[in-house]
Amino acid sequence: MLDAAKTDETLLEVNNIEVIYNHVILVLKGVSLNVKKGGITALLGGNGAGKTTTLKAISNLLHSERGEVTKGSIVYQGESVQDLDPAQLVKRGVIQVMEGRHCFEHLTVEENLLTGAYTRKDGKGAIESDLEMVYNYFPRLKERRRSQAGYTSGGEQQMVAIGRALMSRPETVLLDEPSMGLAPQLVEQIFEIVKSVNENEGVSFLLAEQNTNVALKYAHYGYILENGRVVMDGLAAELRENPDVKEFYLGVSDDGRKSFRDVRSYRRRKRWLA
Ligand SMILES: Nc1ncnc2c1ncn2[C@@H]1O[C@H](COP(=O)(O)OP(=O)(O)OP(=O)(O)O)[C@@H](O)[C@H]1O
Ligand SMILES: [Mg+2]
């Protein structure tokens, strides 16, 4: 399972970044993380911890939100990528799947998938064979290929969003909260697909998740963000066994299952003290 540990090559390095919104709201207070080639890296944390902000900082999507990286550096394969726009970053092999899925509702499922190939110049044949590759991973999308995306289910829309990203032939996918609003069974199904894309296509993933349980089951390495700072990181297998992670993020402690309320109020106290 720990294939990522085999190659030690770092694809993406985020070094001590600070992000400020609207010139005054300091949201990321020095976040550092690495994404290894061929691995699945999880960025975990509750509501408002700064996960989406971190992903948007990497793919340079903060400007439209009046956000700015004011400190630190972001390096992809040894080169600074801070001045690249999202389209240039896609050409380098990095693509983001936004939180909340974002399909083109009036286009069909297949048309949506094809929009993901817009930066490619390797011809129709290659794009068609990748469409088949996406349909192999998501047979459900093949059945729904002619349906208008706006009329498909939440799970199908998440599949379209991931499938569209794969159509750009990425090396690294930044995946924001794929579990959001989906039934547990569907969440597992989507993570299984992410795992097989990772294993079979060698695509690396940085995935932001509130759902610590499922993310640590599929990731190789994890970072936990709290209030704009990384408070813990480690191999996913180790984080799963860590008593604090169990208590605060998995809702279980050694003396049995904790109620979420206890954990929440404790966390609130902890924040106050921090
Ligand atoms: N455009 C913005 N302007 C000002 N503040 C913002 C903006 N976007 C996010 N924030 C604030 O930044 C903090 C981090 O938000 P972010 O969306 O990165 O968190 P998150 O970890 O992705 O949370 P969630 O799990 O709810 O998606 C929050 O306090 C949020 O209110
Ligand atoms: Mg988010």
Question: Can you describe this structure?
Answer:
This protein is α/β, with parallel strands linked by helices. It has two domains: 6-93 and 170-241, P-loop containing nucleotide triphosphate hydrolases (Rossmann fold), CATH 3.40.50.300; 103-167, no CATH class. The protein is built from twelve helices and twelve strands. The chain has a six-stranded mixed beta sheet with strand order 6-7-8-3-9-10, sandwiched between helices. Strands 2-1-4-5 form a four-stranded antiparallel beta sheet, covered by helices on one side. Strands 11-12 form a two-stranded antiparallel ribbon. Adenosine-5'-triphosphate (ATP) binds at residues 21-22, 25, 27, 45, 47-53, 65, 67, 99, 177, 210.
The top-level CATH class of the largest domain is Alpha Beta
Strand order of the largest sheet: 6-7-8-3-9-10
The chain-level mean pLDDT equals 89
Assign an overall shape.
Answer: globular
Distance between the termini: 36 Å
Number of helical stretches of at least 4 residues: 12
The kinds of small molecule bound in this structure are: adenosine-5'-triphosphate, magnesium ion
What fold name stands as the CATH topology of the largest domain?
Rossmann fold
Helix % is 40-55%
| Oligomerization category of the chains in this entry | single chain
| Low-pLDDT regions | 1-5
What's the SSE pattern? HEEEHEEHEHHHHEHEHEEHHEEH
Rg value: 19 Å
Biggest sheet features: 6 strands, mixed
Number of strands: 12
Strand content: 25-35%
Task: Give me the secondary-structure category.
Answer: alpha/beta
CATH-assigned homologous superfamily of the largest domain: P-loop containing nucleotide triphosphate hydrolases
Q: Which CATH architecture of the largest domain is right?
A: 3-Layer(aba) Sandwich
Q: What is the total number of structural domains?
A: 2
